[in-house]
Amino acid sequence: MAHPLSKSLVYQKFLGLSLILFIVAFLLYATFLAIFTTIVLRTRHPQEYYSLTGFNFDSDLCKNVSLALNSSGLKETSDRILQITMYVILGLLLAKNIWAIVSYMRIAWSKTFTFFLEIVAVVLNFYFIFDYDYQNNVTMRCPIQWQIGAFGLFIGYIALFYYIQYIPIIGLAVGEIEPLMTEAKNHRLDMLYELAADFEILKFQFLSCFNRCCTCCFIAPLHYKQNDFTKQWKWWKKFKKQLLESCAREADEDEVEDESEDKEMDKNEQLLHEVRHGLHQLTQTKNRSVSAQPKPGKQFTHKGTKPVGNRK
What is the DSSP string of 221-279? Predict the structure, then answer.
């Protein structure tokens, strides 16, 4: 799996529509968490409103407290914009996660756990921002809404680890412990193949749905191309090396050394290919020279004479 050819084939598959789907899914979920956190920070704890209105801290009195608020905790235009935007994002996330669960359900049930976490976070967030009739003009949430919203935000940040675990510069610095460093590199390589497989499945599901809905513009999945893998993705290696040198110089110096080892391996592979090509040409030349020589037992003399061999 660590062979340059295997990596090149994985990059050819992943650096395309699969990568676009991953980036879109990550940005959509990051936007969801950012807006969710903003709404929570703009909302005060319900106990402040209970103390302001003189009611006991009881969930059954939430309606009375909301109606008693005159000037405190009123919604602003920005609050309504955030709420409407959140409703749209919640719908997109719910559709995306249901689609992902259906795609992975027949392959591996363990893959659906992360998407179930996202759905739980979406449902809890919806209950947190949902307005009852007496909450249309106030930002105050009932105590049960506040508790569920806090737990939903916690679940949302846990589900975020599914996306950020694939970022190379995010991880534990284990450069001083060689066995752990080797194990971490192997694990990260496994994660690369896992990520490519995950979004390759989603890519084919997306193309299948798109081709069913739009029969006039059929899009066929791309296949591998016959290229010299020693010349592929040089820009990616250069970018990765610069990124590691600037962001993780001390924690991942061995990774930078691996880039030079990969280049040396590429040169060795190219040299081996040239040697094999030369041996193949020598073999063909030898075969032609052997086929041009007369076969034994069928030697002939000069013209006018009979064959020398095979006389009865």
Answer: PP------GGGTTHHHHHHHHHHHHHHSTTTTHHHHHHHHHHHHHHHHHHHHHHHHHHH
